[in-house]
Every structure is written in structure tokens, then in C-alpha cells.
Amino acid sequence: MNLLLLEEADFIAADRVVLRDRRLVHMQDVHRAAVGDNLRVGRVGGLMGNAQLLRLESSEAELQVSFDLQPPAKLPLTLLLALPRPKMLRRVLQTVAAMGVPKVVLVNSYRVEKSFWQTPFLEPEAIREQLILGLEQARDTVLPEIVIEKRFKPFVEDRLPAMTASTLGLIGHPGDYPACPRGLDEPVTLAIGPEGGWIPYEVDLLTKAGLQPVQLGARILRVETAVTALLSRLF
Amino acid sequence: MNLLLLEEADFIAADRVVLRDRRLVHMQDVHRAAVGDNLRVGRVGGLMGNAQLLRLESSEAELQVSFDLQPPAKLPLTLLLALPRPKMLRRVLQTVAAMGVPKVVLVNSYRVEKSFWQTPFLEPEAIREQLILGLEQARDTVLPEIVIEKRFKPFVEDRLPAMTASTLGLIGHPGDYPACPRGLDEPVTLAIGPEGGWIPYEVDLLTKAGLQPVQLGARILRVETAVTALLSRLF
């Protein structure tokens, strides 16, 4: 946790918060904070700033806070991601939040196991929990938007074309394709497939919606690694 | 597992192997392989090729194998990595093997907790197990070399300068430094710090050994994500 993220419910006055949950434990056990210490804080969806620890007890801490700093810019990106297996989903959500992806569409694919859609990790509160962990890691305050699309074809045919309009549309896909471009400034829509990859029918539909396959080389990467590698290369 | 990696002990003849361990279970449960099926195989440290499944029983499988393909090229890189916490270490070892890092030096740092050096995951067999998983994921056969350096100063002063000679030496380090370069062809020595980063004394010593700090932006990434992001950007 490199940033203590504050929720509206934490505020007892405009410049005072009281913490009682895992953030209190983290301050005690990891930061080993003491009264008078200064900590970096951010307001979920708002500015970042500083806090001074006024009172620290075993069950709660009180901090005086001030905010003066914009969170870092997001990437100009919409990430279209075949739903990963539940354990990977949690890590990927942290990663995309940490790397500054503003919008993720979790979409079905032929190679997504049906059981993946049943996971409790897709509940809004569970998604938010992982995103918050990623924001705390990277020092950001703005939650990415997560959209769930359980049906591939209607999403790609009916809604994706509007999403990709005036962006560079790319499909991260191993094979005999152009190399993934580097260091872009323009807005990108990037589709990353499931373990085993998109099937040819899916690549066809994505291509018709305006996306072009690009590759990172012969090595097949895990989804989480592929997400990081593609984003880091693109921007 | 995108490549079935074969050890010398698996061979019962020049073109025959018998498998009984987790690879057998994987063939049965994930690949749902049947007699006559073809599978991609590789020989640890050697060529890749094809296997045909000759016999499949609950306790063992026999395959006929042939080898004709070079594994993918490694990156021109030596990675100097502050020892991560044990759980992260295992994932990082998989990641570096998957991404094609040929040599990793695990080094101490002020912010590496002493207990991390006690983990059984540093045993040679445990390290090898994670590297094999990464090679199987990415389709490579050549194990990276892992060097363990428990003392930072003698390593950086006495051995690092020879390692970095005629390479571009870089330290991935957040702060007011030049941006990490992109798309290099030349050999690189890259140092990545622990959670919380290298301390200034360590950056000084690394700089004297010929490495220069570069940064990826304001976001603080987990070690595993930083490794992937830096490698993907550099090469």
C-alpha cells in the first residue's frame, strides 16, 4: 500500500478521517506508524494529498488530511479482455488498476470456461476490492470502469464498433501478424484473448469491428503477463 | 502448459519417453489427450519438436518423439533483482523464464527482509520447478541461470562491473530520471529493486558500477509487474 485510499464514509469532518479496518492494521503492522507521522493519502475518485496521524489506538486511528495533488493520468485505452479464470481475474484487476487502464470490458470467448462466470470475484464489491488494491499500489485514486459482456457476438457486432471509433484497434494475438507498435500517443482499443487464445471466428468478428491482430513474438505469455507486456509496449 | 518439457530420465530410447508425473495428469485432465494425438514437446536444454501418444494408461503414458526446432531466442539481458518475498519470488521466476531472460542475479538489499533468505523456495530444486513452469508456458527449453548474491556491497563492487562491461546498465527506479528507453537491440544489465525501492546508498553503488537510473512514470508497480513492464519496453 503506497497510498492510503479514503472513502467518503471515513470522513468525520472536511479534514478528519477515522480508520478501523485493514488500513488501520496496515498502518500499524507495515508502516509502523506513530502519532505525528505523515502519510500519503488519496480520496477515492478525487485528489491525493497528505495526512498526519493524530491518534492511534488498537481499534481506530484518526488522521488530519489535506488534498492538493491530481492523480496520475490514465492510459488512452479501452481494454477488451476475455474473462480470465477467477484467481487470475483478481490479479489482472489489480494490475489494470495499477497500470492506469480507465476502462475494461470483460467478455466471453469460446475458450472461457462457463464456470468462470459463476465466480463470486465478479460481484461488484469483489471487483472494487481488487481495483482498490491496485490503486493503492500505484498511487492513483480513480477506479477503472469495468463492463461485463457475457455474450461475445452481440457485443462485438453491436457495441464494439462505436467503442473503437477514432481509436487504433488492436488484437494481441500470437501468429504471423505485424509486431505490436511501440510508444503510441493515440487512443487504443486492445483485445486480449483467453488462455489458448481467441478462435479464428472471434478474430474475424473483432477484425470486422475494426481491430487488427498484432503479436509480441513466439513466446506464449500468461494473461496477466500479456496484459502488462502489451500495455508497457504500447504506451 | 503449452509445451511438454522432457527430462533425460524420461527417455527409454532415443525416440521414446514414458511419463508418470504431473505431466501425465496434465495430458489427461487439460489436454484430454488420446492415443494417436500429437503434442508439442521440448527437451530441457535442447530442441523442440513433436510427440505422438502411443499408449495412455492411468499411471503412465508412452510417447514417440522427434526434435527439429530451435527454442526461441533469449533476451540480451542480465537481470539483477532484489530478492522478492517468497510468494512473489515463485511468480517472478516463472515470469522471467517465460519472457526469455537468460540470467538472473538475486541480490540482497536494505529493504529485503532477512526472513526472505530462509525460504525453501530458494532451494535449487524449488527454483528449477518454477523456471520449468515458465518455460512450459512460453514454449522454451533453456533454463535461465539463477545466481544468488546474499551480500550487496561485495557483489556490486567486485563482480557487477565485469558483468555490465559492454552492456547498457540500467536501474529501474521511480523518480526524476530519464524515461526507460524502448526497443533496444544491444545487451542490457537491468537492476530492479525490492518493494519500497533501492535506498540512495544502493543507487550510488550501482551507479558507480556503471548502471544509470531510468523510470517508467509516477505509478509504483509490484515487482512482478515492473519486471514484465521494463522488459517489454526495453526489447
Automatic annotation (TrEMBL), chains A, B:
<comment type="function">
    <text>Specifically methylates the N3 position of the uracil ring of uridine 1498 (m3U1498) in 16S rRNA. Acts on the fully assembled 30S ribosomal subunit.</text>
</comment>
<keyword id="KW-0489">Methyltransferase</keyword>
<comment type="similarity">
    <text>Belongs to the RNA methyltransferase RsmE family.</text>
</comment>
<dbReference type="InterPro" id="IPR029026">
    <property type="entry name" value="tRNA_m1G_MTases_N"/>
</dbReference>
<dbReference type="GO" id="GO:0070475">
    <property type="term" value="P:rRNA base methylation"/>
</dbReference>
<dbReference type="GO" id="GO:0005737">
    <property type="term" value="C:cytoplasm"/>
</dbReference>
<feature type="domain" description="Ribosomal RNA small subunit methyltransferase E methyltransferase">
    <location>
        <begin position="73"/>
        <end position="234"/>
    </location>
</feature>
<keyword id="KW-0949">S-adenosyl-L-methionine</keyword>
<keyword id="KW-0963">Cytoplasm</keyword>
<dbReference type="InterPro" id="IPR006700">
    <property type="entry name" value="RsmE"/>
</dbReference>
<keyword id="KW-0808">Transferase</keyword>
<keyword id="KW-0698">rRNA processing</keyword>
<dbReference type="InterPro" id="IPR029028">
    <property type="entry name" value="Alpha/beta_knot_MTases"/>
</dbReference>
<dbReference type="GO" id="GO:0070042">
    <property type="term" value="F:rRNA (uridine-N3-)-methyltransferase activity"/>
</dbReference>
<dbReference type="Pfam" id="PF04452">
    <property type="entry name" value="Methyltrans_RNA"/>
</dbReference>
<protein>
    <recommendedName>
        <fullName>Ribosomal RNA small subunit methyltransferase E</fullName>
        <ecNumber>2.1.1.193</ecNumber>
    </recommendedName>
</protein>
<dbReference type="InterPro" id="IPR046886">
    <property type="entry name" value="RsmE_MTase_dom"/>
</dbReference>
